[in-house]
Amino acid sequence: MTSRISLGDVAREAGVHTSTASRALNPDTRSVVSDDTVARVLAAAERLGYRPNHLARGLRTDRTFTVGIVVPDLENPLFPPLVRGAEGALGAVGYSVLVGNTDNDLEHTEAVIAALTDRRVDGLILATAELNGAMEAEIRIAGTPIVLVNRESNDHSIPAIVGDDHLGIGLAVDHLVDLGHRNIGHVAGPPALSTGAGRAAAFVEHMSRHGLDSDGRIEVAEWFQIGPGEAAASTLLERRPEVTAIIAGNDLLGLGTIRAASAFGRTVPEHLSVTGYNDMPFVDMIHPPLTTVRVPYRRMGEMAAELLLQILGSRDQPAASVLLAPTLTVRASTAPPP
After folding, report:
1. pTM score, two decimals?
2. Which of 66, 102, 259, 316 is most buried as measured by Cβ atoms within 10 A of its Cβ?
């Protein structure tokens, strides 16, 4: 069996001292080594097929070089790109990722986070839908750095990477108004979630900005899934049949809205325009292709990882939230009102 390539082997190949090779290979200390030396050491490591010994490195630095990523629903197509973005950014600097799925259950969320902290992950990236104050306090007491992604804490005290939902909903409202719609409804996500509450509030504000009435034109879905979206849209269409367009709180709710419209004999977009939110994979392949607000979830995951790495490098890093600007992708599910 071929012996494992050591740090000393890389140092000899690059013609430098072992300590210099160690600094060049460590992103946290690379800046103290000249660019030419870093390039030489990295090239030598690649030629030899060197793989860092993270166990030994962790013993020296009191780190495990693992990060936990917790998502509420791994079957929701928006989360895999987010996880992939974070994993790519962390893997590039020698971190491994452990992914936990909570099934949107608060008790399960507590168990997953406890399991990850018991394994001494260096930090957590949480896309969890709900995180109560007691759980946040426990994580902080354990000393585990946290970055939230696609949601914010109630008091905005935890660093977060989120999409600008106010802007995104405004893009959808503006688009429909420009097409001539005035009777616009909203199928909202659960108000207990920052995404559900924030997008609903933005809908009310942007409707008011156009001088349009939103009263009685919001129906809340139990969850961000197709079935609850269909149920909420059916209730809205039955209660307010004059509605000619519906802005859904996410793409899955949008798909449920299209299904509900069909049950009411209303063709999309001829009799009802529908917009989604997120631009998840394959919504351009349904019939009709869904007009939706696009959020760069892979970049969101990358930025969450980058922010967590900054915090790990400086434990007194202040809380900071970053808003990512969404864009509107117009497809065939919207048209002028009948």
Report:
1. 0.78
2. 102
